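Ticket 4471: requesting a sanity check on a complex prediction with manganese (II) ion. Repro inputs:
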Amino acid sequence: MKKPVIGILASKYETGPWQLLQHGLGDHYVRSIEEAGGLAIILPHGTDEELITAYVDQCDGILVPGGIDVDPVLFHEERHPLCGESDMAYDLFQISVIQKTLAAGKPLFGICRGLQVINVAFGGTLYQDLSLACENPLKHRQDDYRNIATHHVHILDDSMLQMLLGEDIQVNSFHHQVIHDLGYGLKATAYADDGLIEAIESDIYPNLLAVQWHPENFIMNKEDIMLPFFVKLVALASH
Ligand SMILES: [Mn+2]
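Returned structure tokens:
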């Protein structure tokens, strides 16, 4: 049987003495998709809408990975001093991919920044820094290594996520922003103990799932408790 092709959106950065533009992708994303039975392809960033459509057409599912902050202009806010690096053109590229993926009825999964940019694509907003979200946020930017789980997440009943991972799990955490207002048609399906949103799904788009943590890093562990997340994406992409 043909393996489902999962397009993972490349990160955008410049490197080397000539500051040449790169299309980047972490190994853990690729290995997690492969371990789940899919084929991972890097989906290059760009601005040509016809090309973006053609790339999305090549994929059976899309994974929006972690990365830099989203430009607050896209959710109608002034930039806060604690907001990190952002790239408007890159944000618009990802939002275009998100819209084309949903319009094609293909599964769309997000991780960390992926969750945040999906929320913004649906008209939602972000707290530009966790310190603005609540009085005593948990440590969401852990010092422990990437594959170590450091905070608890409660997953709500009647969610795709609970069917995959159970009701109460421990996750890793590498974010300094978090969802403020949910985008239209989105619902929170998991929360950290400080009340911050850790996962979203949609009743309108049943093939949409995004988490605030980094399940791909658990591929380093002997027992990958986050693999069901990737298996589900590959399964949805095989339909
Ligand atoms: Mn967290």
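Notes from triage: The chain has one domain: 5-237. Leaving this open until the requester confirms.
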